[in-house]
Amino acid sequence: MHEVIRLRQRNLWKVIANGFARPVLDRWGYFREDRTEGINYLRTIAGLPLLLKYRPEPVPDELWSPRRLNFLIHELHLSSYLEIGVLEGETFANVKARRRYGVDPEPIFDPVLLPRRSKFAVVTSDAFFASIRPTERFDVAFIDGLHTFEQTYRDVINTLMHLRSGVIVIDDTVPSDEYSAIPDQDESYRARGEAGLEGRPWHGDVWRVVTLLDRHHSELEWRTIVDEGNPQTLLWRRRLGASVAAASAEEIALAKQSTFADVFADGVPEYFHPTPESQALAECVESLRHGRV
Ligand SMILES: C[S@@+](CC[C@H](N)C(=O)[O-])C[C@H]1O[C@@H](n2cnc3c(N)ncnc32)[C@H](O)[C@@H]1O
Asked: What Rg value do the Cα atoms of the chain yield, rounded?
């Protein structure tokens, strides 16, 4: 028993030492991944949260969010990335941007020890936007936090206030069925279980953001990727520098009246601009390069 405790203590010191040494170790490029694996092994033993995995190798193609974001970053020469809702950091770690900013009130990794040129705020997106300078700018953002209509719409508007001229990727904009569209996640799982259906897809009512974009935001352009991976909507300004006014409380309330059954009765509506991934990305890039559609 004493032996086990001594071993744990020894490992704990290694974990702490490795953690502090990380910024130095990071300088030797190819050591990074091995080092993180080792540190995370020790941190598991010590019951500490894991370090964000940092993968210097090419990003696996099956990770659709980094695949799409990295394409946009590369083609449009974007440098500053914001991710709202990071979870265990799979996308955050694989996005190849010069500067990365993550926001999540409950990340599943140690947000103190991060790869170079990344920052993290352990707060809600509302608190994050309330705390940053009005002049803070991002080039590309991934909105994947709380999957409710009102919160996601607020995240979109707040992000647009800090977006230079780039693009926002909104996750989960097309529910897979009426159960996945139920805004409350627990309620969605319960209803699916009662219907005797397998799996746990949940997209919430983020789709209503696109309905509101269509009704209120003629200054914005968007495409919804519907062919491979998760459905996501790419959103950008139709003209560079166009000012964006948030919809009123009445318009937001009105958008809440439409139901999944009404809107998706005949598949994804035309105003979502449903588009295959490669075409959606190409049209976004083309539009932003020329400053207009
Ligand atoms: C679907 S996960 C994010 C997955 C991640 N973007 C990825 O690609 O791997 C959603 C995350 O949103 C976070 N979240 C929940 N409410 C939030 C809020 N108000 N602001 C920011 N993040 C929030 C949760 O803690 C959770 O980690």
From this structure: 21
Atom 18 of ligand 1, residue of closest alpha carbon: 124
- Residue 50: per-residue pLDDT: 83
**Concatenated DSSP letters for 98-120?**
SEEEEE-SS-SSBTTS--TTEEE
Task: Quote the pLDDT of residue 54.
Answer: 64
What per-residue confidence (pLDDT) applies to 59?
Answer: 82
- In this structure, which residue's CA is closest to atom 15 in ligand 1? 146
The alpha carbon of 14 and the centre of ligand 1 are apart by a number of angstroms equal to: 31
104 lines ligand 1 (CB under 6 A): yes
Q: Is 90 in the pocket of ligand 1 (CB under 6 A)?
A: yes
Low pLDDT (below 70) residues in the chain: 1-35, 54-57, 292-293
Q: What is the pTM of this model?
A: 0.87
Q: How far is the CA of 9 from the centre of ligand 1 (A)?
A: 33
Domain regions of the chain by residue span:
2-46, 64-290
Class for domain 64-290, per CATH?
alpha beta
Distance 102 CA to ligand 1 centre (A): 10
Give the torsion through C-alpha atoms of 137, 139, 140, 141, to 10 deg.
0
Confirm or reject: Cβ of 86 under 6 Å from ligand 1: yes
What is d(CA 187, CA 93) in angstroms, rounded to the nearest whole number? Answer: 31
